[in-house]
């Protein structure tokens, strides 16, 4: 019975997550940078617009994780789905850059809460093959991410920005309705005994250098991912690509993640997390370094897919590694710390890249981003070797 319940939970939360992430991704890829440009935003302002949705992750990820340990995962997930369902309609009222920043800030709370608590719920329910299960869920939600650029690009080309935001709202409303049917935890897991363990769990996470090193890897990867997500579309537009082709290039990147992530999660469960994370960082760095030297649809599509493979390799193992290292049952708290550090990186990425693009151009900006990933690989490799010697 337990296995059947777990299997149903994974499938059901994956459907809900797919619809929610479809909504949020369609509101930003490739729509957000193009809509920002339409409003007259400068490259630096576009960086701030993209950053606005990641700031809530810094503010709310850990508190949301703690609340989910105390109140239950279902309650907190429903709160995030409510934000998913209301934010898209606010875009319809935007006419100024600052208004777009405000809406993005509100929208960011949805993904910050949902990502943290859903990951914690899966880590809590599945012990064996944890990376594979977490990666399977992530890939299921990335189905939404993959459809979003194609659908968003087509809707912009055939209709308007407003039509995109209506589609976002419909998808998120469906996620909220289905989310209300998610099963909750057993009452036995929600006792007040969890309260002191939350504090102990936070202390243990912050003191564990290997957990923090893993979190820094996640931050570095998402710093670059956020930058590519924000500026790759503009780079392609500067080369004369229409919106629908930009959607293809970005969509293929996400499609590659769907197929690679569960596979690399399975490999990670068998051979060890670091043997997947380090090559993934190096591969992603190489692809980012190569981006400015391709100007054809086929070339950029291939390089974008390679970046997706590297990204999938890294993120298939980072959350699972943190869960493995958690010495108690407060998975919400530990995932909250991971997501907070990750969101700091994702917040810095677009702003840093916007400044670099404006001052030095795309070639230098992408080279620096590649250097960040390479440095992260070296430092994590050192931390991994040191940790293994202490075991």
From TrEMBL:
Keyword Transmembrane helix tagged: yes
- Gene3D superfamilies attached here? MFS general substrate transporter like domains
CDD domains referenced in this protein's UniProt entry, alphabetically: MFS_MdtG_SLC18_like (cd17325)
* Keywords from the UniProt entry: Membrane, Transmembrane, Transmembrane helix
**Coiled-coil spans in chain:** none
- Domain (Major facilitator superfamily (MFS) profile) spans 9-388
In Gene Ontology terms, what is one molecular function of this protein? transmembrane transporter activity
Q: Where are the transmembrane segments?
A: 9-26, 46-68, 75-93, 105-123, 135-158, 164-182, 210-235, 241-263, 275-294, 300-325, 337-357, 363-385
Q: Which domain of life is it from?
A: Bacteria
One Pfam family, short name? MFS_1
Kindly provide the name given to this protein in its UniProt entry. Putative MFS family arabinose efflux permease
Q: Which organism is it from?
A: Sulfurirhabdus autotrophica
